[in-house]
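In response to the reviewer comment on reproducibility (Comment 2.3), we provide here a single inverse folding case reported in full, input and output, so that an independent group could reproduce the run without further information from us. The structure tokens appear first.
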């Protein structure tokens, strides 16, 4: 399975528009080659370089198996209403873009797509990103990662 973005390449800088210093839009994401056993997807975005430990920026869950990507800005606005999104570490649902502390150096942002063997996850009404990942891990059939870099 492969995860990519037309907004940035793996290992390269995430453009400002997808960060707290810009428009804070979620980047466009596309995927392909999911295993035949895939019944749904979960998309996660985390910063493992955050000073206090991994910072959870985004979790989208119960994405239909037929879906092949998410459009730019899907994590906010009218597009977000159609998505099931967890509460991120900014204490709000949806996408919260890269926003590392000034002068803290390069941070790696891991966009991870999990292909799952179930149609939907049994989660509470307003799950956290961690709760989504914990439940999703029980049903993973494949995983793909796209890493972008940002620093302030």
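Designed residues, in position order:
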């Amino acid at each position: 399975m492969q995860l990519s973005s037309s907004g940035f390449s793996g290992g390269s800088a995430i453009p400002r528009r997808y960060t707290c210093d810009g428009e804070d839009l979620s980047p466009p994401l596309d995927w392909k080659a999911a295993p035949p056993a895939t019944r749904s997807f979960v998309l996660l975005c985390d910063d493992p370089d955050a000073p206090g430990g991994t910072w959870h920026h985004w979790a989208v869950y119960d994405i239909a198996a037929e879906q092949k990507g998410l459009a730019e800005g899907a994590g906010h606005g009218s597009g977000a209403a159609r998505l099931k999104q967890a509460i991120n570490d900014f204490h709000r649902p949806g996408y919260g873009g890269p926003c590392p502390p000034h002068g803290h150096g390069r941070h790696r942002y891991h966009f991870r797509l999990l292909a799952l063997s179930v149609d939907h996850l049994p989660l509470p009404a307003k799950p956290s990103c961690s709760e989504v990942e914990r439940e999703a891990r029980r049903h993973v059939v494949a995983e793909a990662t796209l890493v972008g870099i940002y620093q302030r």
